[in-house]
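Lecture 7 notes: from sequence to structure.
We start with the chain below.
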Amino acid sequence: MTKSTLSMLVFALYLAGLAITFMLFPNPVIALFGFEPTEQVWIRILGFMLGVLAFYYLMACREGVTNFYRWTVWSRLAVTPVYLLFILFGVAPPVVLLFAAVDLLGGLWTGLALKRERLP
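Predicted structure tokens for the same chain:
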């Protein structure tokens, strides 16, 4: 297994864990981030969509789709500036940067691994 595939697999497992948590036990997690508990379905829909993303990541790992890996690097690196804007505009608490940090570190890991794998 290449290092870029390993990084994607780890991120897929992270997404799958979030998916299960948000679908089954969302309130303890969102409470940690200062959000009010909810019985609305939106949080479980978010969990399901995270599960769909986890599936895409797992299938990309299985097939070794390095183009997909590259696409995710750009999108995961974009999370931090977008979340910072959310914080600056007062629509999200600063603690959401914990999620951004996972995306940032994961994107950097995958991007650097892909770069090293291309070197002769």
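Points to note: The chain has five helices and no strands. The mean pLDDT is 95.
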